[in-house]
């Protein structure tokens, strides 16, 4: 008999899916940047250049998503039922200076929502790249 998925397990699966979507957005951004810099038919180099520059924040968001993917993968493998793994993660982040130590524990749902915000931000930037590239033609 297959064990039933908990809400936390589903949240982790959603986080993985969001991280994969982020990978796809980075790939699309790279392709758009290639078209902007070397594509035929680009008449407005300023708009094409602006489109290409948007790759940088997309890459940053992609990097953040890859880090999060690894953390969510580890949390899924740990099967943290009592929240100890999340508390340990917060302690590690505070020790690295990546999170204020006085901040309370973030529930898993809030972390998944944060990943969703990163993916939405990357999506908006890729959409801007498309618009700028279309206007540059």
Describe this structure in words.
The protein has 137 residues and is an all-alpha fold. The protein contains 5 helices and no strands. The protein has helices spanning 7-38, 45-53, 55-78, 84-95, 108-136. Helix 3 (55-78) packs antiparallel against helix 5 (108-136). The model has no long low-confidence stretch (mean pLDDT 89).
Summarize the structure.
With 137 residues, the chain is mainly α. The protein is 77% helix and 0% strand.
In the predicted model, the low-confidence regions spanning at least 5 consecutive residues are none
Instruction: Give the termini separation.
Output: 58 Å
Which overall shape is indicated by the principal axes computed on the Cα atoms?
elongated
Largest sheet: none
User: Which structural class matches the secondary elements?
Assistant: mainly alpha
Q: What is the H/E order? A: HHHHH
Mean model confidence by pLDDT: 89
**Strand composition percent:** under 5%
Number of DSSP strand runs: 0
Give helix % range. Answer: over 70%
- Rg, Cα atoms, Å: 19 Å
Number of helical elements: 5
Features:
single chain; elongated; mainly alpha; 137 residues
What is the fold's blueprint, element by element?
Layout: H1 7-38, H2 45-53, H3 55-78, H4 84-95, H5 108-136
